[in-house]
Write a structure and sequence with these properties.
- This is DUF3006 domain-containing protein.
- It comes from Natronomonas salsuginis.
- It holds the Pfam family DUF3006.
- By secondary structure, this protein is of the alpha+beta class.
- The chain has a domain of 67 residues: OB fold (Dihydrolipoamide Acetyltransferase, E2P), CATH 2.40.50.
- The chain is built from 2 helices and 5 strands, in the order H-E-E-E-E-E-H.
């Protein structure tokens, strides 16, 4: 039961992104294979769509699960700082939930 609840929380956390201050459009790498990348697209912090792309269109530094990418006219731009903030925020939420359930 506890594992199921924690897994559900982790799945929900995957869709939360850091909003781009310029356009509000971001993508988070949800899953990555050798010939595909599944992106969860968000606008103003709300998941709006899912897109499957060739991983070669992504910046090399952003080719990992959980990477935050900003969408602009030139394609995708990796944000290391937004990725780190997202990972820290999710870790704190997960720790708080685990603490409440124990």
């Amino acid at each position: 039961m506890l594992v199921g609840v924690l897994l559900a929380v982790l799945v929900l956390l995957v869709v939360v992104t850091v909003a781009d201050s310029n356009s509000g459009r971001t993508a988070v790498v949800d899953r990555l294979g050798s010939d595909y990348a599944v992106l969860l697209l968000a606008e103003s912090g709300e998941t709006t769509d899912q897109r499957v792309v060739d991983p070669n269109v992504l910046p090399e530094a952003g080719r990992h699960e959980g990477a935050v990418l900003y969408l602009d006219d030139d394609g995708y731009r990796y944000s290391e700082s937004a990725t780190i903030r997202r990972e820290c925020r999710h870790s704190r939420r997960f720790d708080a939930l685990a603490e409440r359930l124990s």
